[in-house]
Amino acid sequence: MSDFSVLAISPSDADAAEKFAKSLRETGFAIIKDHDIPVAEIDAMYRVWAEWFASENKEDFAVQAGESNGYFGYKSENAKDVKQKDLKEFFHVYQSKEVPDSVREITRDFNTKLIALGAKLLGWLDQVTPADVQGLLGEPFEKMIEASDNNLLRVLHYPPLPDDVEPGATRAAAHGDINLITLLVTGSEPGLQAQDVNGTWHDVPCQSGYITVNAGDMLEQATRGHYPSTPHRVINPPAQENRSRYSMPLFMHPRSEVVLDHQTAGEFLDQRLKEIGLK
Ligand SMILES: O=C(O)CCC(=O)C(=O)O
Ligand SMILES: [Fe+2]
Prior knowledge:
Elements (H helix, E strand, L loop, with lengths): L1 E2 L4 E2 L6 H12 L1 E4 L6 H16 L15 E3 L16 E5 L7 H28 L2 H4 L6 H4 L7 E7 L13 E4 L5 E5 L6 E4 L5 E3 L7 E5 L1 H6 L9 E3 L10 E8 L12 H11 L4
2-oxoglutaric acid binds next to strand 6, strand 12 and strand 13.
């Protein structure tokens, strides 16, 4: 186990797009710093959502059958091909769907900013991805997510571990994300690990204000492996640090009709949601 020595890229770097694509290609991850989302806003998001997860009326927002927005209770999701459920609860925010009053304004604003940053990063990939790989795409990456209703901000709460935690159960078992790229604002506590191409697990730096980006399965599929999807997981805390952990990944999802390879993004997503117990 070692620290992940991924370069932190600033959007103002002259060669930001090249560095970003190189890092995604060689490590599956990239770190963005000096973006325009203030740390104070990230901290405020964690604060208001911590209060919401501690509130009594969470179940009023429980996800409805056939839907994917709203509240998902503790142990509702498993990683693909893993039996045990992850030790987490979460809320799925879509720009066009309802969010609780107490968190609405800040969440909409934060989500808008993060989606804009995600669009910019996909635009970087459009600039520097080799022409033969671009030739495989039905449309540029940035276009795939334009006016997409499928971009998903997941606000996660990993409660302190109970005394009777089942052997082998973890906060988040190893998985690849389904979507194109994920923007993962640094969590409130450490625990996130990424696997490199040699199979070694690394701690992802838990530095406030950093946004870690990883390639997902749709990006790997659309580029036939040019950008490999990166396995990652969230490990359980040591006993002396058994606190709640919060994190907020934004999953950038194409419009449903975008063709990835032999499947549309909508078909791909549907199949994967069934495999992870969410559909
Ligand atoms: O909590 C984290 O830091 C990672 C969450 C994650 O990988 C996911 O929800 O897909
Ligand atoms: Fe993930």
